[in-house]
């Protein structure tokens, strides 16, 4: 890892981030980072323990003179999204993140950076290690599996935390203070089919959609970005309608909370349609690239001849699949009527896999309104069940209802205005922050979320602003120094 990262200011923050990023920590495989964090807490002589689900809690007493202030929960999640470019050789299970400085940005070479939520975790570690930063008594809560199910927050029991205020350090614009977020539910459709032997006289092709921006399926869902699964389905649908294209395999997307950047399909057409098929596909490709020329300038769609697969889907099942994905909603479903420019409800068709007689379609539906969340989930279920799929709802978690009369909100707004001579944006976000979940077992806790500027989260284009981290650090320290007294 480049020493240039450790030399960035504030050094205490970037050094903790570098230490953390040296530890592999993909979601659901957090064992090493859990041990890393426990060893860190124990090395400082602080009370350190795991709860039943393996969240890590570290407690630190108040600094002298701060003993009468309210106890604060500093919270971040240990896991990170593991995404890489197709041409990047990297093993998230064994390798630390390879970071570098690019102007004002810290980036990773061909992978996600892990600034979501590594910078927040590093900021908490820096306070736990500090000897000269004023702060109240602290419960540091490091949750697991935030990115793929929020199981750490969902399974945190009441009574463990002692704090009255929770500072969640997991937002991505430094001029925003978050007071609410969306909930979510996974909608997974599955179906089996009987593969058919590939007809004689067929020609094999591999269709590849790549070069899309991808991004966070909540925070970026309103940007009109391309979804590789939707684009691929459009190509396959046209090929089927006009040339009887048959599908052998589809592998599109990866993580439920990332807008899919790539999809690959293996298909066949009858040999007599060979040239006409390629010509027609090129016309559609040109249309799609024109439509996305502004939001997806690097979109690439390739159709190349390949070996014939041994088997394909039967046309009846295939038609149902293509029509169901065409009908399934992707993107913004409803904007909030209460908060300007806030996406209320959306869906991300995150993964489509067709192989060896099995079909799986994964979606992540988000909403800040619980009834609207299930309205869209039921619309998706209907589209997939009409095609004969079994549909399951899983991993449902609640949103976080904004509290505009929050005492900690008033404190943060005042500090921000004094430091920046400008008002912050007080917002609710369309991401799944853990605050809504934590609030179910700690209903009286005053919660707020803020963080440094991070762009491209959940994609290999993820990057963290150096200048913003300095702004965030100054803001963060002033908040801790001014936590209200106990009443």
Automatic annotation (TrEMBL):
SUPFAM superfamilies: Zn-dependent exopeptidases (SSF53187). Residues 208-273 form the Peptidase M20 dimerisation domain. Its EC number is 3.4.13.18. The keyword Zinc applies. GO terms for molecular function: metal ion binding; metallodipeptidase activity. Pfam families: M20_dimer, Peptidase_M20. InterPro entries: Peptidase_M20 (IPR002933), Peptidase_M20_dimer (IPR011650), Peptidase_M20C (IPR001160). It catalyses: Hydrolysis of dipeptides, preferentially hydrophobic dipeptides including prolyl amino acids. GO terms for cellular component: cytosol. One of its GO terms (biological process) is proteolysis. It comes from the Bacteria. Keywords: Cobalt, Dipeptidase, Hydrolase, Metal-binding, Metalloprotease, Protease, Zinc. Its cofactor is Co(2+); Zn(2+). Gene3D superfamilies: Zn peptidases (3.40.630.10). Belongs to the peptidase M20C family. This is Cytosol non-specific dipeptidase. The lineage of its organism: Bacteria, Pseudomonadati, Bacteroidota, Flavobacteriia, Flavobacteriales. The gene is pepD.
